[in-house]
Design a protein that fits this description.
Layout lengths: L2 H23 L13 H15 L3 H13 L32 H14 L6 H15 L19 H7 L7 H9 L5 H8 L6 E3 H10 L5 H10 L9 E3 L11 H7 L6 H5 L7 H9 L1 H15 L21
Antiparallel strand pairs: 1-2
Helix pairs in contact: 2-4, 2-5, 3-5, 8-14, 9-10, 11-13, 13-14
The structure holds protoporphyrin IX containing FE and 2-acetamido-2-deoxy-beta-D-glucopyranose (7 copies).
Length: 319
């Protein structure tokens, strides 16, 4: 080979190797196109069926993805059941008696294992189910990159500390999201998820008895449902107006001091972040666009220790 050809050869070699390397770990919306062409349709049908049966399930599936991704990446670690010899994330403080949708994921996984055994990861199912839920309830759509692996481990202690509690102040929220590579704007847009779904009395008790930045009538009504002690599991709407429709009313509520969680109202309490809340409250297009962008970013959070995962056969346990 002439020196010039040698150089070309090495350039081509290097380029080809790097393409292969990124192709195997970069997420792609068409990842299952040849190995499981019906995968996306199966997930969508499973989500639609579950929401038709119970409208709240759309909210629960969206939250499941968030709680998966914030604990060592979007790797379905949250789906692993506790056993006598294994402590998982389901019973961590932010999840216990609160996170739901496991049976829906199981049903979808069972259908996928019939159609294409051992191919579609549980982590991808959760990411797709979150998107399909938002779309079903009237929100924006986006392309979900696919090709995640499922973890072989889980961390209850990381789940306890990485998922922000509803008592968080603004700076704690910003710190928590920034630790995941998410900006303040991402954080405000993603909080718009609270335009759907429900919260337990125990999650907003401090807000309705102790906060000063709350609408008096709103607080009074909530105190009747959620006493100072007892009724911990009584549910209330995160968006008092349209809890089963994905819209921008959540932000309107904040402008009226009608955020249900202390952490919600922190986004509109005299800080510079408040101007984003105002923007989203009067421009649902801007909210939808930023929400979709932020969901894509959140769904790319990677496990810290890289990719030595697997495609679980049963989402509740490692193979
Ligand atoms: C900004 C920090 C956040 C805090 C402090 C927070 C906290 C909470 C709390 C306490 C609940 C009620 C849980 C219960 O009482 O059982 C809840 C519900 C919910 N959260 Fe968040 N959340 C945050 C961000 C997010 C994000 C980023 C998403 C999604 C991308 C999300 C989606 C949801 C949904 C959809 C529900 C309703 C779930 C259902 O009805 O089953 N949240 N959140
Ligand atoms: C339908 O929703 C109810 C709760 O409202 C739940 O108990 C039941 O398991 C669900 N059924 C199916 C088939 O999803
Ligand atoms: C989870 O909730 C159940 C039922 O309320 C309770 O018995 C259990 O102690 C809780 N687990 C943890 C780790 O807090
Ligand atoms: C996590 O939270 C649960 C429930 O509050 C608690 O039982 C547990 O001790 C906490 N810490 C760890 C490391 O699991
Ligand atoms: C916000 O909360 C954090 C953690 O609880 C606390 O350390 C900090 O002092 C609080 N900041 C403000 C401004 O209240
Ligand atoms: C309200 O604040 C007081 C004083 O800080 C505290 O003792 C109490 O536990 C708080 N109540 C709730 C429901 O958080
Ligand atoms: C909200 O802002 C007001 C006025 O700046 C302040 O007094 C209050 O402590 C802040 N937070 C809450 C939860 O009321
Ligand atoms: C999944 O794991 C395989 C091998 O275990 C690896 O080649 C691939 O890069 C991993 N994918 C991701 C997205 O981490």
């Amino acid at each position: 080979m002439a020196p010039r050809d040698m150089l070309d050869f090495f350039v081509i070699l290097v380029v080809a190797t790097s393409v292969i390397a990124t192709a195997s770990c970069k997420l792609s919306p068409s990842y299952y196109q040849s190995t499981c062409p019906k995968a996306l349709a199966i997930v969508r049908a499973g989500v639609a069926k579950a929401i038709k049966n119970e409208t709240r399930m759309g909210a629960s599936l969206l939250r499941l993805h968030f709680h998966d991704c914030f604990v060592n990446g979007c790797d379905a670690s949250i789906l692993l059941d506790d056993t006598p010899s294994f402590v998982g994330e389901k019973t961590a403080a932010p999840n216990n008696n609160s996170v739901r949708g496991f049976e829906v994921i199981d049903a979808i996984k069972a259908r996928l294992e019939k159609a294409c055994p051992g191919v579609v990861s549980c982590a991808d199912i959760v990411a797709l189910a979150a998107r399909d839920s938002v779309v079903y309830l009237g929100g924006p759509s986006w392309n979900v990159g696919l090709g995640r692996n499922d973890s072989t481990t889980a961390s209850r202690s990381l789940a306890n500390t990485s998922i922000p509690p509803p008592t968080s102040n603004l700076s704690a929220l910003i710190t928590s999201f920034s630790a995941q590579g998410l900006s303040v704007k991402n954080m405000v847009a993603l909080s718009g998820s609270h335009t759907i779904g429900l919260a337990r009395c125990t999650s907003f008790r401090g807000r309705i008895y102790n906060d000063s930045n709350i609408d008096a009538t709103f607080a009074q009504k909530l105190r009747m449902k959620c006493p100072k002690s007892g009724n911990d599991n009584v549910l209330q709407r995160l968006d008092i107006q349209t809890p089963t429709h994905f819209d921008n009313f959540y932000f309107n509520n904040l402008l009226q001091k009608k955020g249900l969680l202390h952490s919600d109202q922190e986004l509109f309490n005299g800080s510079s972040v408040g101007s984003l809340v105002k923007t989203y409250a009067c421009d649902s297009g801007a909210f939808f666009k930023d929400f979709a962008k932020a969901m894509i970013k959140m769904s790319k959070i990677k496990p810290a220790k890289g990719s030595n995962g697997q495609i679980r056969k049963n989402c509740r346990k490692v193979n």
